[in-house]
Design brief:
This protein is an alpha/beta fold. It is built from 13 helices and 16 strands.
Length: 506
């Protein structure tokens, strides 16, 4: 599966290797069986000033025991829940949220926008020098809904135990099942079955959410009020560029153009972004896509028209696009765009730039965005988790790097098991079976992990009735994948999500 977070956001938690042993002790047949690790939570009380008042809430952080159909322990599932004190568990909305990866813990959303504490980040700057700070988060969703941040198995404190193995959790369908099982278990253990229910997933969390919405409904009879897809990755075929799959190549082009526009890398740069993007979108659909579809059947004139347009809209030369045979993945584009200036451009948020590590490299060797924001998020989350939420564990909290080989296959409704996932099909089925479930998709114009046209394309191809299609809303941001690092987008994010919960929690 294509990983939607850049390599620079990976391996952020380091565990020292265990020294090798010269000899292996003989097995003791009389030794007692190894005890199964137990779930444990830490509960703390807090207050936050928000919306002109004071909200008292209880935080519950730790792990929950998950069992298989034979009632055997298979995992400890890590989570952090925030519940308003005195709220009616039957009527107060509850939102389950997670990041993506696959293999990313929820700390990014947790400390970036959703939780009661927020990491102080300076947009478009390197947040790499401490002391790192948190503040009360005036943009938290807690004034509208209780919040459960989920860490899938292999992230955070979540891990397989007992009869469970990594392969039981690390794959498209395995992940959908295990996260759904956790949600159902939480609803039962904490008495939230009657509450209005929402799920929010970012990045690969979009693919997960689309699958979970169907899994919950068809396997557990859990109907969701709404899902929020933040910069979602939903379909391998239309969500990747440079793989000779024309849908992806066409979908990425407008964000290449937005990026070149932002960095003033265009020979004749328009004054305004939005009219420019409408022009690029029309070119991508009406000129670029047909030539890619024709392949060798395209005439020389048609190919030249495409080359001229690609150079005009992206800032890269016709010669470069010609050598690339009209198809380019984002890593090549971001390395080439400002190569002559010794600058590499960010992928997760293309507004960010950094110094090039190798001017001769064909692809970007690192993501300047990840380098700019990861140190502050990692530092503040670990401090907050241990000091304020009082979590006591000798296990490291894995933000990433704890998930093994991923099974890309998906049991797609109506098509059987396919080698690469498209959970847009799952979402369409969930929306059809539950026509009252609403969908809000949030997408940034400067996101090359999950470009805005890949999101629009997925929504456009939902196989649902017109009356159900009206349940979907798309909101746009002048930022990247984690749009909430951009102050105006942070405010808009809260406004959009809060209004969505308010409108659909009845």
């Amino acid at each position: 599966m294509f990983v939607t977070l850049s390599a620079s956001l990976a391996a952020l938690t380091f565990t020292p290797p265990v020294a090798a042993q010269d000899t292996k002790p003989a097995a003791d047949s009389t030794a007692a069986p190894k005890a199964t690790p137990e779930a444990k939570v830490w509960v703390t009380k807090h207050e936050i000033k928000i919306g002109g008042g004071v909200l008292a809430y209880t935080a519950t952080a730790g792990t929950m025991l998950i069992k298989n159909d034979k009632d055997e322990p298979i995992a400890l599932f890590g989570f952090t829940a925030y519940v308003k004190d005195g709220g009616d568990p039957r009527t107060r909305p509850i939102m389950f949220a997670y990041n993506g990866g696959p293999g990313s813990a929820s700390a990014w959303l947790h400390m970036g926008i959703l939780g009661p504490k927020r990491t102080v980040l300076k947009d478009l700057e390197a947040n790499t020098s401490g002391p790192f700070r948190t503040v009360d988060n005036e943009f938290t969703i807690l004034d509208r809904a209780d919040l459960v941040m989920i860490d899938p198995v292999g992230t955070g404190l979540s891990r397989p135990i007992g009869k469970g193995e990594g392969k039981d959790f690390w794959g498209v369908d395995q992940d959908i099942k295990s996260v759904s099982d956790f949600i159902v278990r939480y609803l039962t253990q904490y008495g939230r079955w009657a509450a209005p229910k929402f799920i929010l997933g970012e990045s690969y969390g979009g693919m997960r959410t689309a699958g979970v919405s169907r899994e919950l409904l068809t396997k557990h009879n859990v109907a969701l009020n709404g899902v929020v897809l933040v910069s979602p990755y939903l379909d391998f075929g239309s969500g990747n560029a440079g793989l000779s799959l024309s849908d992806g190549d066409v979908n990425f082009l407008p964000t290449y153009a937005a990026t070149a526009w932002f960095h003033r890398a265009l020979a004749n740069r328009p004054a305004e972004l939005q009219p420019f993007l409408r022009e690029v979108e029309a070119f991508a659909q009406d000129v670029y896509a047909p030539v890619l579809f024709k392949g060798a059947r395209a005439t020389a004139a048609e190919r030249q028209a495409v080359l001229s347009g690609l150079a005009r809209y992206t800032g890269l030369s016709t010669d470069y696009w010609d050598k690339a045979n009209l198809r380019l993945d984002e890593a090549h584009f971001l390395q080439e765009l400002m190569r002559s200036k010794g600058i590499v451009v960010g992928r997760v948020d293309t507004r960010y730039t950094g110094g090039s590590l190798n001017a001769l490299s064909e692809t970007m060797p690192y993501d300047p965005y990840g380098s700019a924001i990861a140190p502050a998020i990692v530092a503040t989350f670990n401090d907050y988790y241990r000091q304020e939420l009082k979590v006591e564990s000798d296990r490291p909290y894995l933000l990433s790097g704890g998930v093994g080989e991923w099974d890309d296959r998906h049991a797609q409704p109506g098509a059987g098991r396919v080698p690469f996932a498209n959970t847009v099909v799952d979402l369409a089925q969930a929306m059809t079976l539950n026509p009252r479930m609403k969908v809000l998709a949030l997408t940034g114009y400067f996101d090359l992990a999950c470009p805005y046209r890949t999101v629009e394309y997925a929504i456009e191809h939902l196989a649902v009735a017109p009356s159900v299609r009206s349940n979907v809303t798309i909101a746009y941001y002048d930022a990247g994948h984690m749009m909430y690092v951009h102050p105006p987008s942070m405010q808009k994010f809260k406004s959009d999500v809060a209004a969505f919960v308010d409108a659909n929690a009845r």
